[in-house]
């Protein structure tokens, strides 16, 4: 293992299905913890000068996954003290998941299917993965991914909380962990 960060330096990686609120909650967390927020999909869009949906259309999903892998791993490994929002499919790639586990604290934003399904119409336009799928197929993808999101992550159940409450819950969880495992030494 090279250059493994201390617990307090680790990036916070937010994972979870499309539309669970990784960006909104990540932005709130960034203010509460005085850390920069990085949306990995935005980094990809800026680097390639195209929206994610255009990358899917012109280069294909496989190429998108390669780019996603390269950039996600780079941020996990080489940045410190950031709040990272990963694309909903990123954590299903073994190499990204391994980099997250090694260099980040991973928080999974966990929403039930019943709550999530009402959000579909709000997000579908720029989520190519959801295009041309029936509701049953989308639910199948949603359920299939949950077990991966649960691997080596802290799960925060978000159904009954608003975004501010979720961000506060994550801050409490992190502070507890930091204090418990790496208390500041006071003379
Ligand atoms: C994807 C999720 C998207 C984006 C891409 C693929 C997925 O990110 O990376 O459209 O496979 O779940 P968000 O989860 O931020 O929407």
TrEMBL record:
Pathway: Metabolic intermediate biosynthesis; chorismate biosynthesis; chorismate from D-erythrose 4-phosphate and phosphoenolpyruvate: step 5/7. Substrate binds at residues 41, 65, 88, 145. GO terms for cellular component: cytosol. It comes from the Bacteria. One of its GO terms (biological process) is chorismate biosynthetic process. It is found in: Cytoplasm. InterPro entries: P-loop_NTPase, Shikimate/glucono_kinase, Shikimate_kinase/TSH1. Binds 1 Mg(2+) ion per subunit. Gene3D superfamilies: P-loop containing nucleotide triphosphate hydrolases. Catalyzes the specific phosphorylation of the 3-hydroxyl group of shikimic acid using ATP as a cosubstrate. Monomer. This is Shikimate kinase. The gene is aroK.
